[in-house]
Amino acid sequence: MRVSRSGAESRQRIVIGAADLIRRRGLAASTVRDLAEHAEAPLGSTYHYFPRGKQQLAAEAVRFAGDLVLLALDRELRAGPIPGLRAFLALWRETVISSGFRAGCPVLAVAVEEPPADGDPEAITAAAEVFAGWQEMLAGSLRAHGAGDSQARRLATLIVAAVEGTVAMCRASGDIRPLDDVAAELEALVAAAVAP
Q1: pLDDT value, residue 189
Q2: What is the b/e burial string over 144-166, where b = at least 16 CB atoms within 10 angstroms of the residue's CB?
Q3: What pLDDT sits at residue 6?
Q4: Which residues are CB-neighbours of 189 under 8 A, at least 6 positions away?
Q5: Of the N and C termini of the chain, which has fewer Cβ atoms inside 10 Å?
Q6: For residue range 151-180, what is the model confidence (pLDDT) as tens digits?
Q7: CA distances (Å), origin 6, targets 10, 12, 61
Q8: Which of 103, 102, 25, 8 is nearest to 60 (CA)?
Q9: In this predicted structure, what is the pLDDT of residue 5?
Q10: For the whole prediction, is pTM greater than 0.85?
């Protein structure tokens, strides 16, 4: 399907709106109508751009959110794994605080959903791909700065899992302290892994 520039902008607005609503409400609690309304888009346009429905839209919203994180990680990891880790943590800290503890990560929100009974779990598949991309980028930086292959992979998995879990804890408690505590411990582990 060929999309005009204004069509591409409309489609992108729907994707961004969907990512925002999913990070606040989750996927199961959001209908296509809710996602369209949140993006201030006509329902018909939403189905036009996303003919496979909610799963397609959610998958694209998850990939959009994942790509934003990858861009930030790529930029910061050039200075090393500790600046990259700090940027990753700062991004989620800002997300949680600026939303008044009402928003988290749309990737996690989709990943914990029950797969649809009547079709392809396109959104969950996208969430798995996003998590894997973040892990690979972190692991690559750790390897480039002296960590062994298996240690880099395990530590990258720990970073993503710890941060995602801690974001959920912060939302539940209305307190940023769990993220700050995890940040300090993760930084110590990364520093030890890349120490000369």
Answers
A1: 97
A2: ebebeeebbbbbbbbbbebbbeb
A3: 65
A4: 155, 158
A5: C
A6: 999 999 999 999 999 999 999 999 999 999
A7: 6, 10, 19
A8: 8
A9: 58
A10: yes
Identify whether the C-beta of residue 170 lies closer than 8 Å to the C-beta of residue 161: no
Burial group, residue 122, by CB count within 10 angstroms (0-12, 13-18, 19+): buried
What domains are there in the chain, each with its CATH number? 5-193 (1.10.357.10)
Ranges of residues in the chain whose predicted pLDDT is under 50: 1
Name which of 34, 81, 42 is nearest 58 in CA terms. 34
Q: Tokens standing for 44? A: 């018909």
Token pair in block for residue 67 = 């790509």
Looking at residue 1, its pLDDT comes to 47
**Residue 185 burial (CB < 10 Å; 0-12/13-18/19+)?**
exposed
**C-alpha span between 30 and 18 (Å, rounded):** 9
According to DSSP, residue 51 is labeled T
Q: What is the amino acid identity at position 65? A: A
